[in-house]
Amino acid sequence: MPGMGDRPDFTLEQLTGRARDHLVELSEPRCALHREVVGPFLAMRAAAAADGIDLVAFSSFRDFDRQLAIWNGKFRGERELLDRTGRSLQPLNLTAGERVAAILCWSAMPGASRHHWGTDFDVMDLAALPAGYKPRLVPEEYAPGGPFHRLAAWLDAHMHAFGFFRPYTRDRGGVVPEPWHLSHAPVAARAERALSVDRLRDVLAGSGIEGKEALLAGLEENFRRYVLNVDPAPECAALAPRLA
Ligand SMILES: [Zn+2]
Fold this sequence. Notes:
35% of the residues lie in helices and 13% in strands. It contains 9 helices and 8 strands. It has helices spanning 12-15, 38-50, 64-76, 96-106, 149-158, 185-194, 197-205, 212-217, 219-228, and strands at 23-27, 30-34, 55-59, 81-82, 88-89, 120-125, 164-165, 181-184. The strands form 3 sheets. It has a 4-stranded antiparallel β-sheet with strand order 3-6-8-7. Strand 4 and strand 5 form a beta hairpin. The longest helix has 13 residues, at 38-50. The chain starts with 11 loop residues before the first helix and ends in a 16-residue tail after the last helix. Bound molecules: zinc ion. Zinc ion is lined by residues 115, 120, 122, 178, 181.
């Protein structure tokens, strides 16, 4: 069986969403995932299908520029900016530091999104989607009574067998809970280890990010609170990502 040593690990460009050469693009279902995550994802999708669930990754790889556009749009008030509790804010009434803090509750800073790695993606169940219903991506949709609760319960029971876990299940004072966000633990752990605050600082300093001064001034704290502060993956022994 091939070991981890056979693969070059994440480059800085891959870690920060500025390369795609770690990815495989799938057409059915359409998504882009890390080459080592495609097998576990498709195996989990097949197992879910056997239980009547059409599990898709509606958002998978996202690159640096896309994350930058989201960030800058919120900072400038061109996209809705929310506080931690989901209330709409007027960004032009806020200091740069306050805007940065609000954005980070909901959106990763470019260069530090787990979506850059190809190991993380957002899921829904197309089979449970009511006709004409537009998903809002709120936790209630994955809670009892919501259209994706059956998917969420299925994931609770089965995702670990395929190596997946949820990094954002509860409010840890960082990113708000995202029950739809899954991560492939063994590969994501390698990316987490490789990304450092100093490497990220260099990338952000050279970018066109809005609020750069405020973001970089608090980067160590922001990195701890919003990047490293995720739910722990189950012990590797509990995961069975090995595929024949
Ligand atoms: Zn996500």
